[in-house]
User: What shape does this take?
Amino acid sequence: MSAEEAKKSHAVLVEEIRRHDHAYYVLSEPSISDPDYDRLYRELLDLEETHPELLTADSPSQRVGGKAVSEFLSHRHKMPMMSLDNTYSFDELAAFLQRVEKRLPEAELDWTIEPKIDGLAVSLRYENGGLVVGATRGDGASGDDITGNLKTIRSLPLRLAAKSPAVLEVRGEVFMSRAGFTKLNEKRKVDGEEPFANPRNAAAGSLKMLDPKLVAERPLGVVLYGLGEVSGELPATQIDVLDWLDQFGFPTTGQIWTGRTHDDLVASINELDAARHDLDYETDGAVIKLNNLSLREQCGATSKAPRWAIAYKYAAEQAETVLKAITVQVGRTGALTPVAELEPVLIAGSTVARATLHNEGEIQRKDIRVGDTVVIEKAGEIIPAVVRVVTEKRPKKSAVFVLGKECPECKSLAAKDEADVVWRCPNPDCPAQVRGRLEHFCARGAMDIEGGGEVLVRQLVGSGLALNVGELYKVAQAEVAGLERMAEKSAQNFLGGLEASKQRDLWRLIFGLGILHVGTGVAKALGRRFANLDELMDASEEELVAIDDVGEVIAKSVHFWFGDPQNRQLIEVLRKAGLNFESSIVISGEAAGPLAGKALVLTGTLLNLKRHEAVARIEAAGGKVVGSVSKKTDYVVAGEAAGSKLAKAEKMSVPVIDESELLRLCGK
Assistant: This one.
């Protein structure tokens, strides 16, 4: 095909793919089957590969094309991104309406009521129809340039569907869907990472990641509802603005309400409250805006917020109950966390009997006492929290709660750094810390030892059979079988799990050791840098800081842990037990491996290798395992009962190999 024909074909493909993306991600009305979409997308990729001059920044193929950055650049907003004043009261809402009416005595006012999305505010700047920059709110005057991350959101158009002004800035909110949030947290638990507290934190954390390819794996969406700088004529009303955004292909809030009187607004706010739990994103209120844009200009703004809009915040679902006791939990790092033991109460669809009190300072600030009637809520609809004390119901003989300065488990005197808000048990042999370390070591995301859960670990520690992870490998089958609720078969399974764990890759051992601040990502980064545990133990802080994903705090923690003589002794115990200290994923400059730079997808059930073993083989050979099939996939490894990924690979002509071919490619 000639250059001109290629150019025309490329334009047609791009437009068709954008149209299908909009139908799928914005309208939730797929207009084409997945195989047909994949065929179009593959055709686009092939065309751009043959004619690289056609590749543009706004091509659908560039959704995850951005490179990782070392830090975000600052972006100054052409028009400030203002915050909204909040109210929780219908009386205050009436006062707000009166203030606006006083400023516009001759005007006939009408209002829009829209969901207040609990996400992260962003501004998107389009020039001549193409997205040129996307930024966070920041301080309102300037924010972080996160264009690469925002481009990964499939519902966001990279080029506008209709003829647009030369400059068009749109404002909106990035969120994480409810279903996506649940799925992400389940994966984090499996990987041994802390789950996110709520969808907003998850969305904000995702957008702060420096590598767009990682952001693309997060289930992010965006809703646009307002304007920044616009060249040319503006729409007349907020309703027109939303219609305008719709025409350009932006996802908007969908249903909105309108009203003229205070009663109209109250009714609409209550209707939205009833409907908001069916939305795919979290909402924490309703935004009331003056509909007429020219009247907004007359209203003006304060230094922080417009005078023509206000946010009515919904109260989180709350309930009263009695605080029966305050207990203290001891974590594997020694942190003493006070916990409220409550009279069970139903809230947000579940029965709550416990709530975290965070730390001593939180208890003092809220003056929480045993016997108090307290108001609790599901913070972010996820974590039970004590909001306040109902002091008028306080028992006459209540006493100020004083957090004991000794560990409730081992009675060691607790300590606290000046910069820390948490008291910690300094005794590394504390039974609670020992149990926590053993449970963490046995967890699926770490050494994956079958049967090594809370019940068995508590008995092993309580009976003195295992007081550190090294002693796990010394217990006998008869000893385990003799524990309560442990039959011969269960004991065999546990010991079999211990034996199998000796072959786990080094990064799993590093993670399983429970070093402060070291999650699976950092453990893998260390495994890629150091060929064995001895090299890691001898590394300086400077060497550690130089590794990707390892900052100063983590480097200091790792160096301190391996410098502790007791930890060194533990390593020697593990060495004698026969644990693997070699890294199969190490990448050296001289020999990157036979799969260096290759991306592989695993699908179906392999006959001889477990999934984590296959991943380890691939990473050891320099390759990378990715989750989905694309043009950049080099091989799809198909086992039994392979599903849609195999079909997609065949449609896209991606090489499909079996387990034996994988082993051959890995050189093992």
Remarks:
- The domain at 86-313 is CATH 3.30.470.30 (D-amino Acid Aminotransferase; Chain A, domain 1).
- The mean pLDDT is 86.
- The chain has six domains: 3-62, 86-313, 318-426, 431-501, 506-577, 599-666.
